[in-house]
Amino acid sequence: MTPSGNEDQYYRELPDGTIKQTNPFSGVQVWTVPGRGARPLGRPLANPRPIGDAERVSACSFCADRLLETPPEKCRLVGDPFGDVRGGFRTLRHLPVEELTASTAEFRRVPNLFEILTWQYWHDNHGIDLSDDARSWQESYLADPQGMAHVCRVLDAKFAAQGLSLRADRLSAADLRRESAPFFGGGHDVIIARRHYADDAATTAGLAGSGQLSVVEHRAFMAMTVTATADLYRANPQARYVAVFQNWLRPAGASFDHLHKQLVAIDEIGASNESALEAAADDPSLFNRWGPDFAIDHHLVLAANDHAVAFVTFGHRYPAVEVWSTSGIDQPWRMDPEEVDAVSDLVHAVHVAVGVDVPSNEEWHHRPVQVTTPMPWHIVLKLRVSNPAGFEGGTKIYINTISPASLCARLLPRLIDARREHRIAEGIRLGDECDLPRGVLRAAH
């Protein structure tokens, strides 16, 4: 599929107000139908109940008082004004069990207990084994009685969830090392924020989403994710792509209503990337024309700063906002810190504007390794305000209940309020202040 410059082919508003859309990159068909778009973006939690200090740190398995319910930490960020991570954070790696409570982890990187592509998949199909560093970490962790008990506890929980009658303490040494290998060298990681509830929350309605982080905290969250992406590529030469995403709230696919991102190394680049890259190879202006340029022409630009732009987009199953890096580099781990922070600030601002009670998916896109066609780093925030049903399943035409213009009209005033209240980063231009030139995505030229 090679999109032409004919807008009617991809975005057409009919006399009755129906908007028929085809995503230029994926080919997804979407209709916005009048009369179905007056729904609220989110619904506050019904019948919230009070919470006490104990529940703030123990509400789910990702909480600070339940550290031993997740596999061993690959690393954590702790507050330190002289640390190695900008913004006042220091990275601690491979902590033994006895040191887990000696510091407060603002963000933790741990293996996912239920991998999408399992360690066995990579071992059997690609011959991947633990690196020397991962093997050394596994050996030292298991040699510690507390570490051994932690690994056995997590394995037992995994076996039980899979309906297996295995017990980790009854495994042979070789089997224990094989079963625990994903904890030390797997390719599916979770980055977990400290808070389950906002610091000032009085009830269970006060969840701590991305918009409840400070600007500095969100930058650290993003920087840690970018570093982890590069780590997964380095650790697995057979990984063609690292998918990065954030599911917020259970309707969006989250296992826990606790802020976290996921990273998954896969051995393909995915159909969506293939489609977009094939089209971009034939038409290098594709990303600019159907991204920022379209938003400029249709007054859908929400915000911009020196290295990124945010706008309402079209052709997605759900109402969506995209944040694109305007850097000349298209892989975030190769960018200057200021360029990554710029993207972080706009993503954070959109989360602030959307609010904590809206289920959402945050999807990251970058140029895959071993691919030469440029694809600027961008993040799509999809608002899960409707549920595809029989019509969508039978026709593959998705009903998006909120038009791009309507979403922009809802979010822009919230961004203006958030800036006035100093809840978003300084230096962000909003709406007509952006005054962007066409072709602002330098990595797409």
UniProtKB/TrEMBL annotation:
InterPro entries: ADP-glucose_phosphorylase, DUF4921, HIT-like_sf. Transmembrane segments: none annotated. Residues 14-442 form the DUF4921 domain. Pfam families: DUF4921 (PF16268). This is DUF4921 domain-containing protein. The lineage of its organism: Bacteria, Bacillati, Actinomycetota, Actinomycetes, Propionibacteriales.
